[in-house]
Amino acid sequence: MPRIVEHPDRPYVGVLRTITMTTFGEVADRIPELIAWLGRQGVALAGAPFLRYRVIEMAADRLEVEAGVPIARPLDGSLAEEAGFFAAALPAGRYATVTHHGHPDRLAGVIGDLLAWAEKEGLTWDLAQRDGVERWGCRLELYETDPRVEPDPANWDTTLEFRLA
Predict the structure, then answer these.
(1) pLDDT tens digits, residue range 112-163?
(2) Domains of the chain by range and CATH?
(3) First to last CA, the chain
(4) What residue stretches are annotated with the AraC effector-binding domain (predicted)?
(5) Which residues contact 65 (CB under 8 A, 6 or more apart)?
(6) Which of 23, 37, 78, 123 would disulfide-bridge 19, Cβ 3.0–4.6 Å?
């Protein structure tokens, strides 16, 4: 069952790519690289790695997606830029959230259910829509399960967090 949570700003290091539905690997596959780089810098992780959907344009099969890793304290942006990443913060606010247990290819149904629940509850997303283009303030998929520990995607937990207006 979805619920609403309040979050403060959450610092992270990430990488942004414009992709299609078939080229997700160009951004998602950067997560291990981000984690390894943060480890070499001695930066403490502060939560599950995530994908952040900034722009969704389904008719054109175009998405702007970030891969990110939360960190305990803000990081000097120039250090991240030297490595080809950026340092930023997920915005504070109220988020509708739900956790999915199972293969990530089943997330579309969970997302649909979350969107329908919010509409039924009269909630408004931090979202601008125009001409079939969705620009999200903060729409996250957090990957709670480490695939090195649990290699079977059917046993993975993924938390959705969509920021409310």
Answers:
(1) 999 999 999 999 999 999 999 999 999 999 999 998 899 999 999 999 999 9
(2) 3-163 (3.20.80.10)
(3) 20
(4) 1-165
(5) 16, 17, 19, 24, 27, 51, 52, 53, 54
(6) 23
